[in-house]
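Try this one yourself first.
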């Protein structure tokens, strides 16, 4: 009986000594969508924009603001690792008033053209489709003052990969 009581006492003390630590443990955090320090830089008459797409179907920017009359130098970086056939990304700037979901339906049918509908009246500018580790830069004049949508036209991406392009 003494052995059983000793065993119970040791078990209770062991359990009580576990778990109530006042020491705060750092839990690892996974940052899927980090924003680079400078994603928009302005020079005289030129706005440089860097936008990234990743393997989690996310752009790092949801909003891009540029001054009216500026030239825009936009660099799209696919910071993921997956091939463009599996997780391709592009940047498509749509005209004002275009329904992004209707545009996505048209883009779905344009597989032969990297999901860019040929001769689409809805598109102001776009990049080609990129795979992991690739990047591309395009230059264009900022459209008229207003708010425009930008999207990735890869099938299924428009729901998560979209944002506002604001010309002030």
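Now uncover the answer:
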């Amino acid at each position: 009986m003494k052995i059983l009581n000793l065993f119970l006492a040791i078990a209770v003390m062991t359990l009580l000594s576990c778990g109530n630590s006042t020491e705060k443990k750092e839990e690892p955090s996974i940052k899927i969508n980090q924003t680079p320090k400078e994603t928009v830089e302005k020079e005289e008459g030129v706005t440089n924009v860097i936008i990234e797409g990743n393997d989690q179907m996310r752009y790092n920017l949801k909003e891009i603001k540029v001054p009216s009359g500026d030239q825009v130098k936009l660099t799209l970086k696919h910071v993921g690792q997956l091939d463009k056939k599996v997780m391709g990304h592009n940047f498509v700037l749509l005209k004002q008033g275009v329904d992004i979901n209707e545009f996505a339906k048209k883009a779905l049918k344009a597989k032969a053209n990297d999901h860019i509908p040929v001769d689409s009246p809805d598109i102001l500018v776009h990049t080609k489709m990129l795979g992991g580790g690739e990047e591309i830069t395009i230059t264009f004049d900022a459209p008229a003052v207003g708010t425009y949508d930008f999207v990735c036209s890869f099938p299924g991406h428009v729901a998560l990969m979209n944002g506002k392009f604001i010309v002030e």
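Discussion: The two ends are 84 Å apart (CA to CA). The CA atoms of residues 76 and 136 lie 5 Å apart.
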